From TrEMBL:
Residues 25-54 are annotated as: Disordered. GO terms for biological process: carbohydrate metabolic process. Belongs to the glycosyl hydrolase 16 family. The keyword Signal applies. It comes from Streptomyces radicis. This is Glycosyl hydrolase family protein. PROSITE patterns: GH16_2 (PS51762), RICIN_B_LECTIN (PS50231). One of its GO terms (molecular function) is hydrolase activity, hydrolyzing O-glycosyl compounds. Residues 27-308 form the GH16 domain. SMART domains: RICIN. Residues 42-54 have a biased composition (Polar residues).
Length: 437
């Protein structure tokens, strides 16, 4: 977006910070320490030749997907989404976002329906007094973050004066550095008074609010987005974001568009879906606006180019042994250890585009969100928090940037079953690793 809605992101800093802390991501500490000078992001290990592979020839891996299957009336999957609750004074929106399945529920046909209603069953109070509308807003903070790939949603739009749906992303470090430094990527926004037009925008330091950089896409022949489903997407890579509707590209942005301001989009972001009512940009509903209004979402999906965003294979270290998931168990909290290399899936690690290291569908995680020497390593559901971020250095260290410490073999022993831990980087052999290249 472009207008005063920019300030809405700042309003979620406290909520996001709380959420991340509750999920072990500990917002407020992320980004405090930079990787060692010789370090580079996992995705940068790949050669330019690897990254030149054509889209047609390279398979895409689904790293996040919600097709909203489930019984009619049930709420969204709490393992993927959290509902935000409250009003939004910063943007002067009129709705109150409710919890649970009050305004966001599955329709039993593989779709999510976010419904805005002119009502106030809970005597909700908003910035302007007694709230006039209810609606829903949800995000993946603490559950999933994306960094690069294709981010898309297939949506049938709401419509009408004062109605404001959006599918967008915020930098996962917003709880630490605030907005707009965190960055914001608006995949799709629509104001109901423009039924045939959507907007795609980026916001960051020096180009937020009305100075956001973006473009609009308008359907041909007077078609309206509320008449059927359309796929809204960004294709995102280092220093480049491209927007499309139904496969039709309508803008690409790179650092050259920023006039010297910082490009803040080469890092993890979480996803947001919401249906706002009123606000500075769309204006308030009027007598022509019909309620309830519905935003129907068929799917949300994030895919990555498996040929250019990571490699999968064993990670070998001390004594030529492998980083291993104990007992090949994918249960949360399973220890990560050193063990004889055996080629099993418990030793196949993917260096993700989002900075994570993954095996058995879960992430290499620092127990208890620790940053101190001796913090043990485990397998855990991926949420993209700072305790799941890793950088492979040119010196073959595997570093957690937040702690600025290394993946380490406890007690410098290569015995099978030796637990891996976090430790101050020393350059010793028990901190040297051969990761997939």
């Amino acid at each position: 977006m472009k207008r005063a809605r920019r300030v809405v992101a700042a309003a979620v800093v406290l909520a996001v910070s709380w959420t991340l802390q509750q999920n072990g991501a500990s917002a407020g500490t992320a980004g405090e320490s930079a990787p060692p000078a010789a370090s580079r992001p996992l995705t940068e290990q790949l050669s330019s030749a690897d990254q030149a592979t054509s889209d047609d020839a390279v398979p895409m891996a689904v790293v996040f997907e919600d097709t909203f299957d489930g019984p009619a009336g049930s709420g969204v999957d709490g393992g993927k989404w959290q509902l935000e609750v409250g009003d939004n004074v910063n943007n002067h929106e009129r709705q109150y976002y409710t919890p649970g399945n009050n305004n966001a529920k599955l329709n039993g046909q593989g779709q999510l329906v976010i419904e805005a209603r002119r009502e106030n069953p809970g005597d909700y109070q908003c910035w302007y007094g007694r709230c006039e509308y209810t609606s829903a807003r949800m995000n993946t903070a603490g559950r999933f973050t994306a960094q690069y790939g294709r981010v898309e949603a297939r949506i049938k739009m709401s419509q009408g004066q004062g109605v404001w749906p959006a599918f967008w992303m915020l930098g996962n470090d917003i709880g630490d550095i605030g907005w707009p430094a965190s960055g914001e990527i608006d995949v799709m926004e629509n104001i109901g008074s423009e039924p045939s037009t959507v907007h795609g925008t980026i916001h960051g330091p020096g180009y937020s609010g009305a100075e956001g950089i973006g473009a609009a896409y308008t359907l041909p022949n007077g078609q309206r987005f509320a008449d059927g489903f359309h796929t809204f997407a960004v294709d995102w890579s280092p220093d480049r974001i491209t927007w499309s509707v139904d496969g039709n590209t309508y803008q690409t942005r790179t650092p050259t568009d920023l006039g010297g301001d910082a490009w803040v989009f080469n890092k993890p972001f979480f996803l947001i879906l919401n249906l706002a009512i009123g606000g500075y940009w769309p204006g308030d509903p009027d007598g022509s606006t019909q309620f309830p209004q519905q935003l129907t979402v068929d799917h949300v999906r994030v895919t990555t180019d498996t040929g250019s965003v990571g490699r999968t294979g064993p990670i070998t270290g001390l004594g030529g042994k492998c980083v291993d998931v104990a007992g090949a168990s994918s249960a949360n909290g399973t220890p990560v250890q050193l063990y004889d290399c055996n080629g099993t899936s418990a030793q196949q690690w993917t260096l993700g585009s989002d900075g994570t290291v993954r095996a058995l569908g879960k992430c290499l995680d620092i127990t208890g969100d620790g940053v101190t020497d001796g913090s043990a390593l485990q397998l855990w559901d991926c949420h993209g928090g700072p305790n799941q971020q890793w950088v492979v250095s040119a010196a073959n260290d595997i570093v957690n940037p937040r702690a600025d410490k290394c993946l380490d073999v406890r007690d410098n022993t290569s015995a099978n079953g030796t637990r891996l831990q976090l430790w101050t980087c020393t350059g010793a052999a028990n901190q040297k690793w051969n990761a997939p290249r």
